[in-house]
Amino acid sequence: QLHLVESGGGLVQSGGSLRLSCVASGKSLRHYVVGWFRQAPGKEREGVAFKGGFDNSEYYTDSVKDRITISRDNAKNTVSLQMNYLKPEDTAVYFCAPAVKRILLIDAEDYDNWGQGTQVTVSP
Q1: Backbone phi, then psi, for 88, in 5-degree steps?
Q2: pLDDT at 80
Q3: How far, CA to CA in Å, does 122 sit from each of 9, 38, 39, 64, 83?
């Protein structure tokens, strides 16, 4: 059974940076599509960044393009999210999850085995 744990969240000022990590155990993430999602209070979970499995493709939602980079380290069974130039509207709980199918999809319903999330708070 694949188990994911997110870490790296915290409180940062606007314009600051954070690096989130998603460490997997139980199975290798190597060939999975992995997505990072976030959920702010009162809002639906939204996809932020996605990393393909076999083809290593990437997709970013428009609101984070040029500020966030997703990367994979197969040796550490980890998918990371480098977030720069953070804004208050980036405040949310951030989750990672592998896709159910081995194609890059961006809806939360296409992902399973969610981690517990890590809180990111950006102050003005």
Answers
A1: -55, -35
A2: 98
A3: 10, 14, 14, 14, 11
Q: What is the dihedral of CA 116, 119, 120, 124, to 10 degrees?
A: 160
Helix, strand, coil tally for the chain in percent (to 5)? 10, 50, 45
Q: What are the structure tokens assigned to 92, written together?
A: 């949310």
Q: Which stretch of DSSP H or E encloses residue 16?
A: none
Question: Tokens standing for 6?
Answer: 């997110």
Cα separation, 94 vs 48, in Å, equals 9
Nearest to 122 by CA among 97, 89, 75: 89
- pLDDT tens track for 6-23: 999 999 999 999 999 999
